[in-house]
Structure formats: structure tokens, C-alpha cells
Description:
- By secondary structure, the chain is an alpha/beta fold.
- It has one domain (about 5-260, about 405-490): Amidase signature (AS) domain (Amidase signature (AS) enzymes), CATH 3.90.1300.10.
- About 35% of the residues lie in helices and about 10% in strands.
- The protein has helices at about 10-15, 25-35, 50-65, 105-110, 160-165, 185-190, 225-235, 280-295, 310-325, 345-355, 360-370, 375-400, 425-430, 435-440, 470-485, and strands spanning about 45, 75-80, 115-120, 175-180, 195, 215-220, 265-270, 295-300, 405-410, 445-450, 455-465.
- An 11-stranded mixed sheet has the order 1-3-2-4-6-5-10-11-9-7-8, with helices on both faces.
- Helix 2 packs antiparallel against helix 3 (about 50-65), helix 9 crosses helix 11 (about 360-370) and helix 9 (about 310-325) crosses helix 12.
- The protein starts with 8 loop residues before the first helix and ends in a 9-residue tail after the last helix.
Amino acid sequence: MTDLTSLTIAAARDKLANKEFTALELTEAHLEAMDKSKDLNAFITTTADLARARAKESDARFQRGTAGALEGIPLGIKDLFCTEGVETTAGSHILEGFKPPYESTVSQKLRDGGAVMLGKLNMDEFAMGSSNLSSYFGPVKNPWKAKNRDGDLVPGGSSGGSAAAVAGHLVMGATGTDTGGSIRQPASFCGIVGVKPTYGRCSRWGIVAFASSLDQAGPMTRNVRDAAIMLTVMCGHDPKDSTSAPLAVPDFEAALGQGVKGLRIGIPKEYRPEGLNGEVAALWDKGIQWLKAAGATPVEISLPHTKSALPTYYIVAPAEASSNLARYDGVRFGLRERGLLGDSLDSMYSKTRAAGFGTEVKRRILIGTYVLSAGYYDAYYLKAQKVRALIAKDFTDAFDKVDAILTPTAPTAAFGLDDKQDDPIAMYLNDVFTVPASLAGIPGASVPAGLNSEGLPLGLQVLTKRWDEETMFRVCQVLEEAANFPSLKARP
């Protein structure tokens, strides 16, 4: 039998429908792969028994002819999505042991579509990070290795567990969340496809909040078609989420195969700063030529407020985080640290939060509380929101001239586990190409497009106007076909 873990979601969907194997057999193959790759530390919680039970239910639906769009497909769920009765930690000690009595809307939609959850995937604590080094449950290791250099590499973050599990063929696809690049950057580091849809396209209900005006769920898969299939199931209006858009969900898979002939592709000059990595720049130039050869027209554009995006993000996101994370106080759920008998409530709060939060989360709470405090709100937070509006306008103006924008996804390939741990600013710079789209709320995707001199993946990013994921998928598919990037398992 074909190695079942090498199949794409689309291929497995067709073979399951043709009864070439069962959902249970497909699930068992992935559970075995997970067991063999525990060293990657991609999972915080595994749900083997639950997966087997759901796979059997899928097989029964195949027999009855009532199979869903993702029936029997084994997926991993980022541990930021609440899952009913299954521990949900957000990668933090403060939520260790928390078992939600409800299911997030996105994971429920996947479940209703027949997907089989294999477990909860590791991540940077509360989605704060670009390396997966801030997880309370230890760092995730990138399944890719550098040539002629020893040592493990980071998978990117915060959706690092999702990226590593998909790249390592432990799951067929995974959910991620993207606040400033946390789907797209790890997708680039691990050589997979990662999609951040338009803000409001996927419900945020039941997703542990980091920055509410930025957080957005999306799929992480090994090819573009699989991402389109997953996203179609994940999307839809949710009355429980006031930011969920009341729009019909397109069939994103149906948009594939239309090519890019006649499309205008924006090339922003601000994304080519002095000192840009030469290999990243060369791949970007190659991507431009691929699209040109497919009939698209490259157009130089300007996004003048790009240089302000990173500082704007690191004011807005921590401010929202400081508010969202105030609920973790040791009273209602999660960790509770008690001191000596007679300690005050304030003492219990401070001891719980000191013990429960990691260094990066504390850093961002402090930054956020500072910029929201009396005397600094106008100087920092209010000004950042005004700059954010200008960044969004830059994109609106650009899309009057072009149909899509092509940029690099990340400024470098994956780096070593210990390379940047002591320099938070260096870590933050990993998001320099992804943050602007998050601030503007537009859709973006990373497609694996080449390898650097060390044999490590590099991605290209495609951005389109709000609610135009179909064009994004069309451009991504052309890049994918031109790059012919093989999955990690297919490489010698």
C-alpha cells in the first residue's frame, strides 16, 4: 500500500471516497508517524483514542454516503483553539490542565466536515513569538536540517508545532493562527503552505485571544489545493463573534486552475531594504519572472508606511494582549498560586501570574500596560492606531493599481534553536514582511518556492485585497507549479 502519510488531503479525499483504504487505516498511519517523531515535540497533547473513535465514525458515514468535505482526514489543532473536554493550554503553564466545556467555532466546523483530530499542537506561549522557543512545554524542532551544520532549527512561530507536524508528515493539515505572521513565517521556515485569510473570514470564537483586532485562524498544508479545501470548511459567519463577516463562503478550490494571465502583480519597493538577504532577494526576483512567464504583469508599487509597521504592531498587539490576559488571575480557571495563610487577593494574583506566565508574555504585558497607561495612551497607542490606518490605506491605494502583491515571506531561512534567544528585537524582525498585511486585515499566504545554500526552505508571500482569497490562491498555485518544491519526505 502507498505510504498513507505521503498523500495530500485532496488525494486522500478521493481515495477514501473510492474505498481504497479506510479512515481508520489513514489515522493509524499518522498516529504511528507521530509516535516515531516525538523528538520534534510538535504536540502538547495527543488524542489517539479520540482520533480512532472519530475515524470509525467517518468510515460509517462513508458507508452511509453522508461523508463531509474533510471526512476521515487526520488534522492537528493548534493548542490555541478550545477543544471540548481536551486540554487547551495556549502553550502556557497558567492554563495547564484546563479542559474547555465547549468547542471553538473553527475546530467545530472541521469536526462537522468529518476531520479527525490527532491532538493539540505546540506553540509559542499565548501565540507570542516567532520561533516556538517561548512554549512552556519546550521548543519544537524543525524537521528540516541545514547542510554542513549541526544543530536543530526553529520551526518559526507561533504556529511552529503546526508547521513542523505538517512538514514532517505527522498530520495532513493543521490549524494555525496569525496575529503578525504566525502562520506565514513558520510556513516559510518549514517549506509548507500557510494562509492567513481576511480578518473576519474565520470566527475567533473559542480561540484563546492574543490581540483581538489582529488574530485570525487559517490552514497550514503541504500544497495550495489542500489549503483551499481546508479554508472553505473553516470559514463562515458566526453570530457568536462580532468581528465575523456575514458573507457567503466561496469555494476556494474552484478558483484554482484559472492561472494569472492578465493579472497585475505589485512589487513593493519598500520590501527590498538595504541589506536584504541575497538569497531571499534572488528568490523574489525568480518569483516575479515565474508570474511574468505565466502571463502576469509586474508593476512596481510603493507602500510608504511599511517602515512604521513593525513599531506600530509592537504597540497595538501588546496593548490588546495586556487587556486580554488580565483574565488569568488564578480565580476562575487555570493555575492558582497560594502563599501563606492570610495572603491578600492581590498577593494571590501576582504570585499566580508570576509563576504562570513566561518571560516573553510578561514582556509584552508590561509593554502593553505601559502604552495604555495615563499620560502615554495618546503618545503611543492612539498614534499607533492612526499609523495603522495609514498602512491600511497604502494597501487600498495599491490595489487600485494591481490585483495581487508579491513579496518575500521572511527575511531569512530557519535559524538555530539558540541563535537569537537573548535578543527579542532580533526575534521581532522576523515579522517585518508579514506584519503590514496583518495590520491592514488583508489576506496573505506563504508558498514554499526554493532552498537557500544550506538546503533550507524559503517562501514567497502573496497578498490580495480584502475578501479576495480566490485571486490569492490563483497566484499561489502558479508559483507552486513553477517552483516544483518537493515536500520534505520526498527529498533524498
